[in-house]
Specification:
Helices cover about 80% and strands about 0% of the residues. By secondary structure, it is an all-alpha fold.
Amino acid sequence: MEDHADSGWEEELDENLIRALDEAYCQDLQSCMKDVEPAPNEPDCGFEKVQQEATVLQAEMSKFRAEERINGVSPQTWEGYDPKHAAIKENLQEVGKARRSRQPEEIIREASARASESFRNASDFFRKEREQLVQREQKYQQEIVELKKQLQEMRSMSLGQNNREMETCFLSGMRFFRALEQDREAARKESPAREEKLFAHTREVVSGVYQDIKAAPGQIRDAIKEKADRAVDAAVQRVAGVFDKAIIHLDQRRQEVLAFSPMEKKSQKAVKRRISYNPKKKEKLNEKGRFR
């Protein structure tokens, strides 16, 4: 059974760890690389390639973290990397064993090639995850732009006696956009797992609202041409209702996410077991900020 009686410091430690995973993982791998690198009088046996791939991985981690700061964190990505990190360390250890036991150069090269491949696989993983993160956010932003265009288009129509209904609808839309901004701003102050859920929910809500009202401008335009005032009112009121319900849904979901989640702490601890890192005592990378 999951123990929920941990101290507040343990929760803070987990959150600090999740927030700095790129640095933590890089420090862990830097230590492993140093342990298995060839001595000055030893042949390289492919280790230079391992170092190159390690540098590429660090760069991909940094790029992914940079996108997280813009588009919201993705703890699931780091959990997905976790077994790849373990595989890298295992392959590096095999390189070290081969060197220490004075294996033939061919054996050491094969071990180094496996280590290089594991680094390369991890780099590809972060590259694809970064692309997906960017694509999700681009879709969200594009739908926001389209929603604002649709709302403005509806407002610009000559509605005559329907102007009051349209202004009410327009204000509902503005409140919805503000609610989205406030949700995301508040999400960045929460733990990574909660931030991820809140960002994902804003994307889901925006997509749903976009699908619900994308046909509304055309419907209203047709009703105006037919001078069907009741149909115009009904369409405009329906759009306003979509915005109002979405605002309520955002608030409800935020309250649900902010409630204590035992799974959040469990997932954080699962990641922490894989890396040798203490947020209270950070070691520095070399002067270039790269693996040795």
